[in-house]
Structures are given as structure tokens and as C-alpha cells.
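Propose amino acids for all 95 sites.
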């Protein structure tokens, strides 16, 4: 599996948002949790990682998630893309 890629993205996201991995992948719908999660899904999509592989990783870290929820998260990021968001995504992609 793509553990090193996943962990690199998570490390970049946690540093950017000043939150822990445990916080991002815990229950709750507040924006401070969902935005980093959605960006993680989007970065995995950009890298060409299949959603089923992302689901396996999430299950292994005890945060199972439905396929449709991941797709919705990716769509949410795509809907919000602008120049500032692209710069953020570029920073997060660096592994």
C-alpha cells in the first residue's frame, strides 16, 4: 500500500492546519476536521491512488469511511479551487 505517501500527505496537512492526525481522523463534522480530511482525499486522487486503497488505509487507522463520503470530499475541494487553494494544494503535495 502507499503508506509513505499517505503519511507524507498527513504530515503536511497536520503541519499546515496545526492539528494532529488523530484530530483529523476523529468523529465530527466541524470544518476544522473536514477540510483537512477532504484535502487528504483530494491529494490521493491527484496521485492516482484508488478510493478503495484510501478506504483500506482509513480502516487500518480505525477510521472507516464510505466510498461516497470520500467522493463527496473530493468534489467539495474541486468546487472550492481558486488560486489560493491551488497554492495550498501545491504545498501539501510536496513529498
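Proposal:
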Amino acid at each position: 500500500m502507499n503508506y509513505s505517501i499517505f503519511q507524507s500527505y498527513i504530515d503536511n496537512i497536520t503541519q499546515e492546519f496545526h492539528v494532529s492526525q488523530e484530530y483529523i481522523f476523529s468523529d465530527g463534522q466541524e470544518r476544522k476536521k473536514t477540510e483537512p480530511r477532504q484535502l487528504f482525499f483530494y491529494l490521493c486522487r491527484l496521485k492516482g491512488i484508488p478510493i478503495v486503497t484510501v478506504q483500506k488505509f482509513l480502516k487500518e487507522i480505525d477510521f472507516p469511511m464510505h466510498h461516497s463520503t470520500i467522493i463527496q470530499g473530493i468534489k467539495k475541494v474541486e468546487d472550492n479551487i481558486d488560486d489560493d487553494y491551488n497554492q495550498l494544494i501545491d504545498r501539501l503535495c510536496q513529498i
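The CA atoms of residues 43 and 89 lie 8 Å apart. Residues 3-20+31-93 form one domain.
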